[in-house]
Amino acid sequence: MEEKSLRITGADKTFFNKITKTLTKILIPTQIGINGMLISIKRNSVIKAFENYKLDTQEYDKEELEKKYENCYEAYLEALDKYVMDTIYKKVKNNAASDFEKDALARYYEVTSLKESEYVEYKNRKQKYLIELDYETVKLSGKEKLIQRYHKFYISKMDTLYKSILKNYSIKLADSTNVYESSKEWIYTKIFHTLEEYIQNILSLKIQIGEDKNLQDVMKEYEKFETYQVGKLDTKDTIEKNMILLGISRKLFTHSLPLIVASQCYEKLLKDARILVQDTKIATKREKAYSMLINLIEDYNIKLLSTKVYWENPKEREEFKKFWNQYQQITKLKSTDFIEYVRQKEVLFIKNDMKKLNKGKTDYSKIIKYYKRKLIDYGALRELKNTYQSKGRYIKAKEVA
Question: What is the per-residue pLDDT across 149-200, written as a single tens digit (0 to 9) for each?
Fold first, then answer.
């Protein structure tokens, strides 16, 4: 009887499991419909609240409008979160999900995994994820009026979230307690990845719909960035792309990536570029890497250090003043003798960079040797014979300026 009872129980369990799975598959479309309606209602509410909040009017209390907007936004996010857990999760579990839905759930878990270790990033990334998910739905709806209204809310909220994400990275990178010292390489990677993501998804959208009229300053840099979106990038290309990203960030994220952090990012790129030059064996590739390094040195000094107001080290400030005065004098040659302008500028950059190379822990002996060869070629450094004879012994001579 006991064996018979176990067999019957097992059969019942299997039977009810089949019924449950069948009912779940039947109910999933209904859940999508209900959740879809709920999201649509919450979406319309948040768009309307956003538009009212952004209105330049004296008729309503601005604080009250902001509070209503925040409440509508919170309710909107809750509806989207519920959709992911109630609908997408169940569809994936029941093998009824599309590739897009499978990817959406995987990204959801990737974001939520940050909750315990990186709560600030988790909070911003989750909002960003949910809004991006719904933006895809809005685009697929084909409702032009809805899309246009949603764009304004979407861009405004994404600007806020990206700034918060970058500010969080900046705090970690600027931390002087060495708490994040071991992970700083990873923070640099995250900063460049986040900047690239913003330019691809948000800045490109702003340009496409003409949302922001003040983008002329970044258009030239943006067009350069686009050239790095095709094909596989090597190390040189990646450094150049990141250099462009930093240049754009100085116009779009001045407060989220303050000067001290942007300076650290430039120094990281300079280090990578120097190592690339000294490690590259093929002459033509080394020359291209060297040319990229010179451009990076110019970017760092002109776009960043020349805008620096406060210097912690007075000696460094005085050294930069001398460099800057020399650079300005050389720049006067640009319109009269361009070749001489390029030569003198390059010599100035090389000499200025050489002063910094012995201050760190990295071995730059190879690039110093390469720099000296460049200075000799430009006539800025005199080369003595390799050896001379003294008292019957051959003594190695040194290069002298």
Answer: 999 999 999 999 999 999 999 998 887 665 555 678 899 999 999 999 999 9
Sign of CA dihedral 61, 62, 68, 72: positive
CA distance 117 to 38: 32
Higher pLDDT, 359 or 398: 359
Of 54-58, 148-152, 315-319, the least confident: 54-58
Asked if 132 and 155 touch (Cβ cutoff 8 Å), the reply is: no
C-alpha distance from residue 155 to each of 47, 147, 208, 250 (Å): 12, 12, 12, 19
Give the phi and the psi of residue 115 in degrees, each rounded to 5. -55, -45
Distance from C-alpha of 330 to C-alpha of 342, rounded to nearest angstrom: 9
359: enclosing H helix or E strand: none
Question: What distance lies between CA 114 and its chain's CA centroid?
Answer: 18
CA distance 225 to 62: 39
Side-chain-side CA neighbours of 293 within 13 Å: the count stands at 25
pTM score of the predicted model: 0.82
